Amino acid sequence: METPDTSQLEIRVHEQLRSCSPIFLALADPVRQDIIMMLTKHEKLNVAQIVERSPMSRSAISHHLKILRQANLISSNKVATEIFYSLEIESAVSQLKDFIGTTEQIIELKTPDEAE
């Protein structure tokens, strides 16, 4: 049996991979992973509260928060003079699920049926 043309799916998965790259890069760093874990335990934290829970400096934490924000993994909300950060991963999870779904479709199309 001939394998159906997967070129359109491959183009789509390539585009999805590119759009997911900031998420992968943000999640690849252990410090950012720690920040994500902190925010899973607390509804919101400001920079000082995150620094208290980390061995990193305030400027380093701010840098990591910026990367997480750019990847749309966290959101920030200013209250008076403080900025509070909270986990906002629904969009990123949706992007990753779409990427995985397309990848699975390609694998299914390229994998010969075992029954044949």
Automatic annotation (TrEMBL):
Stored SMART domains: HTH_ARSR (SM00418)
Keywords: DNA-binding, Transcription, Transcription regulation
PROSITE patterns noted in UniProt: HTH_ARSR_2
Residue ranges annotated for the HTH arsR-type domain, each copy included: 12-107
Family annotation (PANTHER family): TRANSCRIPTIONAL REGULATOR, ARSR FAMILY, TRANSCRIPTIONAL REPRESSOR SDPR
Protein name as it appears in the record: Metalloregulator ArsR/SmtB family transcription factor
Origin species: Paenibacillus oenotherae
